[in-house]
């Protein structure tokens, strides 16, 4: 989860985590110790984020302009553009190697400071750092939230499902945008094979995701462990005739902390 970017923290902490992992794998620093690749120690996306963004190319709207652009692309102008792209890509690869070498050097310096630390201590220190994130213990899913204003596109978020609350995070941000304890959730389920609906009091949240069933199953598991009845999915009728008394969910479940789930989002690998 750390390597995939699902534990938002500072780059300094990420380097310390990498050093602790090296200490756990290889014990004290040695030039003869086997070195894992950097992407096995440090999130690659952090290095890529340092690179300049690609140049913006405005869309060509006019059909005649598109035709002229196509003709140019097939001639000398196209060859010049291809050469420029190749040179730019080569510069970016060189910059990425430099950033990787700098980061590895910083990790090794931190590794040297851990001399004498045993494997159990290194693992305990690693977990203590990860636990500093308030969302520790949640299972995170990549989702696209469909927002209500007309013309607004879906918003990419993390949907964090914990033992006592469901939270929404902006990817990479440590604090949630919003958090809902299970007492506030009135229903949930699949609107279709790629859309998950979560009804919170008077709000309906629609998430586009490829993991609809996994999200629903995890929510059912936490509700069952809390001793509640399974909430009916929006497209399902209640399993028993309605009564005058609504289902009452337990209150006081708004704390985000919960038992640590040693797994990344369903279907992804972890390290």
TrEMBL record:
Gene3D superfamilies assigned to the protein according to its UniProt record, in alphabetical order:
1.20.80.10, Pleckstrin-homology domain (PH domain)/Phosphotyrosine-binding domain (PTB)
Q: Annotated region Disordered: where?
A: 229-271
Q: Which residues form the FERM domain?
A: 1-233
Matching Pfam families, A to Z?
FERM_M (PF00373), IRS (PF02174)
Bias (Pro residues) ranges? 234-244
Which InterPro entries does the protein's record reference? Actin_motor_Myosin, FERM/acyl-CoA-bd_prot_sf, FERM_2, FERM_central, FERM_domain, IRS_PTB, PH-like_dom_sf
According to UniProt, the name of this protein is MYO10 protein
What is the source species?
Zosterops hypoxanthus
**Taxonomic lineage per UniProt?**
Eukaryota, Metazoa, Chordata, Craniata, Vertebrata
Gene this chain is encoded by: Myo10_0
